[in-house]
Automatic annotation (TrEMBL):
The keyword Transmembrane applies. InterPro entries: DUF112_TM (IPR002823). Keywords: Membrane, Transmembrane, Transmembrane helix. This is Membrane protein. The chain crosses the membrane at residues 7-30, 36-62, 104-126, 132-153, 174-191, 203-227, 247-280, 305-327, 351-371, 391-416, 428-445. It comes from Methanococcoides alaskense. Residues 11-434 form the DUF112 domain.
Amino acid sequence: MDIEISILMLLLSVLAGYTLGIFSGLVPGIHTNNFALMLVAFSPIFMDWGVPPTYIAVAIVANSLSHTFHDIIPAIYLGAPNDDMALAVLPGHRLLLDGYGSEAIRLSALGSAGSVVFSLLLAVPLAFAFSILYPVLQSYLGWLLLIISIALIMTEKGERVINQGSLVKYKYKAYALILFLLTGILGTFAFRMESNMHPLIDIGSASILLPLLSGLFGASQLIISLFSGSSIPPQKYSKMELPTKRIIRGVITGSAAGSIVAWLPGISSSIAAVLARLFIRSDFEKETVTEDEDFDEQMEGSKEFIIAVSGVNTANSIFGLFALAVIGKTRSGAMVAINEIIDAASLDQQFILLFLIVISLTAFLSYFSTIKIGNNIHRSLAKLDYSKICITVLAGLTLMSLLFTGYFGLMIFMIAIPLGMSASFMKIRRSHAMGVILLPVILYFL
């Protein structure tokens, strides 16, 4: 496939996609897929204006990558995550309430940037390896996810209590199993009845995951913060105080997990985040700590997971392009849009090289803009009453569930909230609520 490259057109396309990614990343409820589908819809007009389809695809890739950098900001500061950042809410919110919100943003930007480096260095060998292993992985995917789910439950330790009996730890594992199954049943019901979802506003890519994950991880945490009287303290401008080995491990585990899900059908970044969670040894999801060393360990665990989950989303967006080029499969809305514009069979080395340049340039711009926004947004929020922020965001999540998924989605949202809150009352990790996705996928593949 011959590509005539105009440097000016290339830069304009990158800037357009990068800007759209900032907007979709910062505004809860707006997904990068919305803009990808919009660009596809308007592609005939752009081509009539003399814009080749290559540059439309460039804007889609830049939008997708920029989004993965900036979407951490509403997840941390507002407790309003999109589908891919659901698990980042609790550790990010903890860092915010301890005065380290801006550091969490910098760590996230570092995780995404590190994932870009990881992907650029290992994209070709991993693409070759996955092209060979893909049929095997696809055959045993259900069992693999079952093992991951069991490991997630068995590693639950619960609340540490002095002089507790030796059998108490099994109580928390039982709680974890109950939460996993309850959310899994809810997810299975929601996915099977998704046809009952009648959006009041059709934006083209509404998913039942919006009310599910917003209720389990967003609204539930906001309600707990609201009733516990939490407030946003002055934010500290500290350097990133995290051991280098934890930074490297966070980048590698997140990037590796993100690269895996980019190749496998039915697997989202949320599931990859669960996989990355297994490699973070500290229980940063516990609501309370009793010792200084536990607090320090939780802080480091929270920071490492922020790096990992950011790396998951960025690696997934990059390796999705290679999955399209190598096996001709689309794993995201952005790749579906690119496949609509440019036939996957025509993708060659020249095209891939162009997109690696686009990825590098977008990542460079996104890294600095994410840090800039993260370092300054708290000044605006500091002028507002935190309880009013919580109420406003809760109302926004409720309204989005109603408008984008209809009354059925609103019902699912309301059911998901108490399930998400129950993890705090049972003193177990909220990541067990990812059974909402894991159990339906396991049942599908088995």
